[in-house]
Amino acid sequence: MSQYDSSKFLVVDNLDSFPEELKGGIVAIGNFDGVHRGHRAVLDAALGLGHGTHHPVYAMSFEPHPRTVFNPSKPVFRLTPRDLKIEMLRVCGLEGVLILPFTKEFAGIEANAFVQDILIDTLGISHAVTGYDFHFGRARQGTPDFLRTAGATHGFGVTIVQREEDEGAEIISSTRIRDSLAHGDVAQANGLLGYRWFFEAQVRQGDKRGRDLGYPTANLVLAEDCPLKHGIYAVKVEAGGRWHDGVASFGRRPTFDNGAAVFEVHLFDFSGDLYGQTLRVHLVSYLRGEEKFDSAEALIVQMDQDSAEARAALGSLRPLSEIDTRLLDVSA
């Protein structure tokens, strides 16, 4: 696929109805949680192979996350839940994604059966692209070398993409990005992703305390397992098809009730009712940690400073990559 064209993107979650349009294609295989720079090296390799050919290029991914299936008491926080991962893969310029249900039974499939029954008989692939650490089949017997051998035997190409490192020669991984968010290191998380990390959530009814303070907020609840550090953030928000700059507080509001964690977003120069709407929030920068103030007046003084700092950060916003440009309208 030589050009970005989201209109043709196909989402397939049933092997029994795999579309003819994707058969014979080049498939990038992986979990792709976060669709970070390391993942995009795999996707870009697949797109490069498809450039100038008639072969469709698509991704194969798995839901839920394998680590969650094998250890349900400690589910993996998803940088990009299913729908957002689909969105990211679409934005990357692929022609579709095949999402296979991941179960313990699926994990127990023999590697030979995965190749023959899925890659060859059902998908009829022309080429498989995976990362250096991708394994499949019972007891992880489907190694990169196994896949290379299978490709040579059955007549499909295989490309194994080596580890992608950051500017400090450290491997880029979803785990590092989760850890960065947990420490409030938004700059590092976004740098490893190659775009501003974002989430979606529906606006819920709040106590309207922000309005009384002169900072009305849209109240969002993040996933229970979200590791994001409590604190104040500069954010870019999409609401109803329009982009807004804003400042957000994530935490338990220790100055008032120290209650359940809420992500409270104040949109600059905005008036209107957002209740019930789903917002997309991109984290631009981490401003400071959550604090308890002696009075509402002291809090307002700090909120004024936070807003000024957030406006400055947003005013100098530049895209991190072409993907970031497609995701985030920095001119809005």
Please explain how this structure is put together.
- With 332 residues, the protein is an alpha/beta fold.
- It has two domains: 6-161, Rossmann fold, CATH 3.40.50.620; 186-327, Beta Barrel (Elongation Factor Tu (Ef-tu), domain 3), CATH 2.40.30.
- The chain has helices at 37-50, 66-70, 82-91, 104-107, 111-122, 144-154, 174-182, 186-193, 209-212, 296-315, 322-327, and strands at 10-12, 26-29, 57-63, 96-101, 127-131, 157-161, 198-202, 218-220, 231-239, 242-251, 262-267, 278-289.
- Strands 1-4-3-2-5-6 form a six-stranded parallel sheet, sandwiched between helices. Strands 7-12-9-10-11-8 form a six-stranded antiparallel sheet.
- Helix 7 runs antiparallel to helix 8.
Question: What's the name of the CATH homologous superfamily of the largest domain?
Answer: HUPs
The gross shape turns out to be elongated
Return residue spans where pLDDT drops below 50 for at least 5 consecutive residues.
Answer: none
| Average pLDDT level | 91
CATH topology of the largest domain: Rossmann fold
The tally of helices reads: 11
Give the strand order of the largest sheet, numbering strands 1, 2, ... along the chain. 1-4-3-2-5-6
Please give the CATH class of the largest domain.
Alpha Beta
Alpha carbon gyration radius: 22 Å
CATH architecture level-2 label of the largest domain: 3-Layer(aba) Sandwich
Strand content: 15-25%
Q: How many strands?
A: 12
Major sheet, described briefly? 6 strands, parallel
Oligomerization category of the chains in this entry: single chain
Fraction in helix: 25-40%
- Number of discrete domains: 2
Structural class: alpha/beta
Termini separation (Å)? 29 Å
